[in-house]
Give the backbone structure.
Amino acid sequence: MKKYTYTEKKDTRSGFGAGMEILGNTHPNVVALCADLVGSLKLEAFIKNHPERFFQTGIAEANMMGIAAGMTIGGKIPFASTFANFATGRVYDQIRQSIAYSGKNVKICASHAGLTLGEDGATHQILEDIGLMKMLPGMTVINPCDFNQTKAATIAIADYEGPVYLRFGRPVVPVFTDPDQKFEIGKAWMVNEGADVSIFATGHLVWESILAGELLAAEGIDAEIINIHTIKPLDEEAILKSASKTRAVVTAEEHNRLGGLGDSVAQVLVKNLLVPQEYVAVNDSFGESGTPDQLMKKYGLTAPDIVAAAKKVIARRG
Amino acid sequence: MEIKQLEDVAGQVRRDIVRMVHGCKSGHPGGSLGCTDLLVALYFKKMKLAEENGKPQFSMDGIGEDLFFLSNGHISPVWYSVLARRGYFDVSELATFRKIDSRLQGHPTTHEGLPGVRIASGSLGQGLSVAIGASLAKKLNQDDSLVYVLMGDGEQQEGQIWEAAAFAPHHKVDNLIAFIDYNGQQIDGPTAQVLHNRNLGEKYAAFGWEVIDLPGGNDMASVLEGIDKAKAAAGKGKPVMVILHTEMGYGVDYMMGTHKWHGTAPNDEQLAAALAQLPETLGDY
């Protein structure tokens, strides 16, 4: 098992803020919109440097999405940002008609996704957003795993023409990816090559998968860990290559097991390669208040859960 | 173009509308007929359009030209006819309206690449926000042309409209001229019965808009005058809202004064009766 270490923990939303600060200087057509959550989205630096390119919409997300769509007419690249719940479910029809169907170059930037939002509870902990967004034709869906990857993804999507959903979170988590990485949309990242089981992970579950890989290695199980940061378009080639080798698949995500990464992977497998798959995901329920660590444990999204799923799928493979 | 010529165009557009909805046995003639005079006045007289030898040159970004957005996308027949008659595409394509493989979808879309359309609309309440966004982009681009948007009065019941209504004055979006097709009708009946839009003009004024009441929405001279008034009010720190009084179904006697022709197509006999009232001025498609 390849060794991954970290010297600091940071929130992925700060990676978004750092990416926006850079884009402010490098991309004059990038504009930012936010619905009364500037501090939470870490947009202060962008706003300080480029106040004329920031648009505060107030608590009015539907209008924000429409304005973002309109600003692309004239060549702007709008980054419309708020919490994931309000960036997707609340404004689904606005995104569907004015952004996705209209093919607009809007970047929907969603923080506080999933359970790790923590104490605010289920009203804010959206676990359905990946599913909602990936069902829209033409939508790219990205869920980076740490500060550095989120920063790189933020910068990368500015140069991609088309609607993008960028999902990140609130808690501080280990920073373990390359600070100078180039983010390639739709290209999976090989975290660790292995032979016994494939773990396909996205977002905060990538670090948990690395911890799980170490636990499995101690028991003599050689796990292949692949980071699927782009859920749509999905890197089917990387998935099939790995699954053909290990013939046992675990998917890991901070999302409902219905409609997330796991289902995307299952669809690729069922069409191409009949191998067993286990889901590490929220089991079709809402979340609740608690600390991020407590919630991840209670809802089965930690390294030991991934270990258990890996052993189970290996047993099913026979 | 003089008023008489504009009226001739409007008459032909009305013929196109009833023929289009008859041709596919569906669509929304009522609001389309009511808004014909406005769209003809904008496209044939008042909007600054990118042109080459009198032929419009469509680009998605529309830099340096005035933009028009149709928020109440169900009145697509009038928009399609006006775009075709203005030269954005061939009038023969109007015959494909709502038919399979057509660029003229039931509700307008960019998806099929129809020149003149810059956003999909149909799900109501979204166009004002989009128009605000396009207006902001024009300001950032130091482009001093204007953005026009048309909404329905029933559409004012959508909540997103009021988010946009608060945003535009706060951010001084004064290169935006919005119209409400104030015909008092919607699918389920008179707007006053379905959900009353009390004091619409006063509401927008209270939100900080410059509001212009335009009673003669089906009289070409009044419409031209109203647009001039709106243009004169633009650029002064406030967005402009024109309450355009129209009659749903205007120009076809049996369609007027009722919500019943909001979304119903005429049969063969009714089509003949409608066309008898609308002289063919430019030649049918």
